[in-house]
Amino acid sequence: MYRFLLLSTLCLTATWAVACGSSTQSVTSPSTSKCTVTATATPASFSATGGTGTLNISTTRECQWTATATTSWIQLSDSSIGQGEASRSFTVTANTDPAARQAAINVGDQKVAVAQEAAPCVFTVSPDRDSVGSGGGQRTITVTASSPKCAWTARSDSDWLVVTDGTEGTGNGQVRYEARATSGPARSGNLMIAGRQIAVVQGSGCNYTLDPASQDVAQGGGPGRLAVNTSPGCSWTAVSNAPWVTVTTGASGTGTGAVTFNAAANDMGVPARTAAITVNGQTFRITQPAGPKCTYTLNGLTGTIQGFPAAGGPWNFTVTTGAACAWTAVPSAAWITITSSPTGTGNGRVTFSVSPNPPGNPERAGTITVGLSIFTIIQGII
User: Fold this and answer.
1) Neighbouring C-beta atoms of residue 321, cutoff 10 Å
2) 217 Cβ partners below 8 Å, 6+ apart?
3) How far is the C-alpha of 48 from the C-alpha of 55, rounded, in Å?
């Protein structure tokens, strides 16, 4: 600072002698010394999600300052120009990259450091599970990353699944894999893509053949056998569709195996018939000829004679035959009346009545025929 002395002397001359007087004045100009500015940020470190902070500035009240951020992810929310002590708020935007970052807010020649943590990489994988047919083929999985800088890898945990393209990548991308064809049972495997486990399910490729494809059995029935040919690990069941064919061994199995069965005899009067044993959609056919022709016995005999007095009366006899054999009892004379049902199937009983033989009539005879068997009735006279 410079000080000037101003001396004024005023001398006045008059007709009489006058004394001389004097005065002084001080003036201050702007200082050329540099302002001292200090600044701090609270907080100075942020998580990846970002947030808000406060910039605190200390200096004398005459000092002007300017605050500027050195990066776009730090944003000053108030005026960046000020004087004297002040506080300014600022915002740190979210960090989407998997790397920590640092920048500064400059206040005069002060650099206020601001740090931010790295963001975790987040991946979306689509589809998150997949399925393929037994014939296999190529499929594509899409990877979506939270940042172009996020790196990922892809691999298979199963020998029948092979990653053919996209074993590693950064940011968004695709993984192409191939599933090998199978002739075995349904199976599942896993792909590890961008830290995610992708389950892949493959449908069954099992095929079954039966040897032989059919068999004829005698009317009297008997055992039979068929071979089941398939791949190891392929399971199967054998089911008969008829009560007269019984699976005796091999009702279920895995891989190549055999099924044995027994066919019952075909009953009297039953026509030729067929049955099937089904093994996982494959059909083994069994054919059996008709049973013997129906025969009927009446009271245990193919023919019998029963005598009646002239007064007549009720009577009955049994019919014995095969379960499938139908029959009809047919009387030969009007004086013989069937009182039960005249028809039946299988074993049964016929009830009938003989009318009185009128006086003067001779002895008479009649019959009831069931099939080829005859029940003979002889009625006497009074």
Assistant:
1) 22
2) 224, 263, 286, 287, 288
3) 20
What gap in Å lies between CA 93 and CA 318, rounded to an integer?
106
**How many Cα neighbours within 13 Å face the side chain of 101?**
19
Site of tokens 């101003």:
6
If you search the block for the tokens 């000020």, which residue do you land on? 82
* Rounded alpha-carbon distances, angstroms, from residue 85 to 30, 40, 199: 20, 12, 62
Residue ranges and CATH numbers for the domains of the chain are 38-116 (2.60.40.10), 123-202 (2.60.40.10), 209-288 (2.60.40.10), 297-379 (2.60.40.10)
The residue assigned the tokens 């993984």 is 175
In whole angstroms, give the CA distance from residue 114 to residue 67: 14
3-class secondary structure, 180: coil
In this prediction the pTM is 0.63
H or E segment and range at residue 375: strand 373-379
Of 344, 263, 253, 337, the C-alpha closest to 296 is 344
The pLDDT tens digits of the residues spanning 289-347 come to 999 999 999 998 888 999 999 999 999 999 999 999 999 999 999 999 999 999 999 99
Q: What pLDDT is attached to residue 33?
A: 53
Rounded distance, CA 191 to CA 172, Å? 18
CA–CA distance, 124 with 144 (Å, rounded to integer): 5
What's the token pair of residue 95? 């960090």
Tell me if 178 sits within 8 A of 162, measured CB to CB.
yes
Which of 322, 247, 315 shows the shortest CA–CA distance to 286? 247
